[in-house]
Amino acid sequence: MRKKKSSNKGDSGTSATAFFMTAAAVGTVAAVLLSYAVLSVCAALITTSSKETAGFSVSSEMGVLSDSCGDGYIAAMASVSLPSGAGIGDAVFTGAKPDDISSSTEVESEKPIVPSLSKETAEAFPDLSVSAECAALMCVETGEMLYEKNADLHHAMASTTKIMTALVAIENCELDNTVTVSSDAVGIIGSSVYLYAGEQMTMESLLYALLLESANDAAAAIAIEVSGSIEGFAELMNEKAASLGLENTHFTNPHGLDNEDHYTTARELAALTSAALKNETFREIVSTYKKSIEMHNGQGSRLLINHNKLLKSYDGAIGVKTGYTSNSGRCLVTAANRDGLTYIAVTLNAPDDWNDHRKMLDAGFGYYTGVTLAEPGSVSFTLPVVGAKDTDSITVSNRSGASAVLRSGDNSVTSVVELPHFVYAPVEEGVQIGKVRYYHGDTEIGSVDLYTDSGAEEEEIKLSFFEKLKALFGL
Questions:
Q1: What is the pLDDT of residue 179?
Q2: CA-CA distance, 308 to 317, in Å (whole number)?
Q3: Cα angle at 298 between 293 and 303, to 5 degrees?
Q4: Does the structure show a pLDDT above 50 at 331?
Q5: CB of 399 closer than 8 Å to CB of 451
Q6: Residue of 51, 149, 162, 240 with catalytic role
Q7: How does residue 29 score in pLDDT terms, banded at 50, 70 and 90?
Q8: Of 137, 140, 177, 208, which sees the most CB atoms within 10 A?
Q9: What is the Rg, in whole angstroms, of the alpha carbon atoms belonging to the chain?
Q10: Has residue 427 got a pLDDT over 70?
Q11: What are the backbone angles phi and psi of residue 347, rounded to the nearest 5°?
């Protein structure tokens, strides 16, 4: 009996040992599997987070080039390509995100349409002597008044009225619209192309007659076609003036014949012209020197010659409009463009208006200079890519250019480059991934976005279960 007891006891001990060994093995495997699962989830989260901060959206976490980058990336910094001859210094690499530097520059702030003369400009701009009773010189690109003389005095404007007439017509009628000339538009005193009642021509032809020959009958025909009457059209003109912020301008007709309630100022006439020149149709017409349009019933053609002789005698001139009545005196609005700069000169009651405008425009072009900050494709960087197939880097570059207006002789510009330190694959081609901002002193004067020139596919790495376990435990 004792022997039997001894045998049972030994069997029981062996079974217990086997049970605990099996349980321990199962527990170990379970712990390994659980650890691997947790690690996989964490890795996935880390990868996702990294890709989300690779700089592919406005809200992404963008790093920038800085001295803390590795040696390989410092070499990439040296590949910055900046335009020569523009006085642009070395790029400055900051540690801030793009949005931290100046979020307000993402959307260009609106400038007042009516220009003003700053104290600095008044003190620095060359002294001028002009014959005009009222005068103004405006830089379109800066929206700034450079020179003024009685610029806020209410004054008759004669046919410079037709700047507003044309702008309102272009915005309210199709150019190819056929206009039947009303009898009320025939025989208007002053400049004329001698329209016939019932004559048909396009709105475009009437606009050329209006702005080149300063035809008062064309002005009346346009007004009646657009609004049904001279008075109705004048209301549209005043509504447009109000929308442009012109508080010292009022119209009673579309041609500019004398009326005590028909007036403007040199300052506001410059502002109106600046707005009109943004319309490509208007700009094209006023810069045309000669144009032929049909006569009544195809009986021949009318040859129109632009009255603004500066078109042929002043470098860069692009119009705009002459005017004269015995009450207003000689009125003239001229615009000229050189090297990306546009100036508008206005004179009211100016006996020597052509010379006045030459002097004003010359002074303007001598005061400011246009600077090219970047040509399209001139700025490029090499950017490291993590986890990509067949490549370890991509290039980024600018697709658009940038320019600025600076005081002559004061064109020192610095640039700030904003890019992530690196990106994770996959990367798509043509994605905006950074920016270069240009500064004159502390003022941002322009910027270009940087886009990926090519894409990068993500490399797929497949490991067996045991290789993943070995990697997990560092074996």
A1: 95
A2: 9
A3: 25
A4: yes
A5: yes
A6: 162
A7: low
A8: 137
A9: 37
A10: yes
A11: -135, 140
Q: How confident is the model at residue 48 (pLDDT cuts 50, 70, 90)?
A: very low
Query: How many whole angstroms separate alpha carbon 336 and alpha carbon 333?
Result: 10
Q: How many residues does the chain have?
A: 475
In this predicted model, what pLDDT tens digit does every residue of 165-214 receive, in sequence order?
Answer: 999 999 999 999 999 999 999 999 999 999 999 999 999 999 999 999 99
Q: Is 134 helix (H, G, I), strand (E, B) or coil?
A: strand
For the ranges 107-111, 151-155, 327-331, 370-374, the lowest mean pLDDT is seen at: 107-111
Q: Can you tell me which residue has the tokens 């810069």?
A: 287
Q: What is the SS3 assignment for 34-75?
A: HHHHHHHHHHHHHHHHHHHCCCCCCCCCCCCCCCCCCHHHHH
The CB-based long-range contact list for 350-358 (8 Å cut-off, 24+ gap) reads: 350/130, 350/131, 350/132, 350/133, 350/135, 351/131, 352/130, 352/131, 353/131, 353/132, 354/309, 354/310, 355/131, 356/130, 356/131, 356/132, 356/135, 356/332, 357/310, 357/314, 357/332, 358/310, 358/314
The rounded distance, in Å, linking the Cα atoms of 27 and 31 is: 6
Q: Which amino acid is at 267?
A: R
Pure H helices in 188-279: 203-212, 216-227, 230-243, 266-277
Q: Which of 149, 159, 274, 397 is catalytic?
A: 159
The answer to whether residue 162 is catalytic is yes
Active-site residue among 191, 192, 205, 214? 214
Closest CA to 251 of 348, 138, 162: 162
Active site annotation includes 214: yes
293-302 mean pLDDT: 81
Q: Residue 427's closest CA among 450, 451, 449, 456?
A: 456
* pLDDT, averaged across the chain: 80
Compute the distance between CA of residue 350 and CA of residue 343 in angstroms, rounded to an integer: 19
Backbone torsion region of residue 300, taken as left when φ is above 0, otherwise alpha when ψ lies between -120 and 50, otherwise beta: left
Q: Distance between CA 233 and CA 14 in Å, rounded? A: 111
Catalytic-residue membership of 159: yes
Cα–Cα nearest to 161, from 264, 276, 39, 28: 264
pLDDT digits over 369-411, tens only? 888 899 999 999 999 988 888 899 999 999 999 988 888 877 7
Of the candidates 283, 270, 391, 277, the residue with the CA atom closest to the CA atom of residue 332: 270
Q: Residue 436 class from Cβ within 10 Å (0-12 exposed, 13-18 middle, 19+ buried)?
A: buried
Using one digit for the tens of pLDDT, what is the confidence trace for 103-119? Answer: 333 334 344 578 888 88
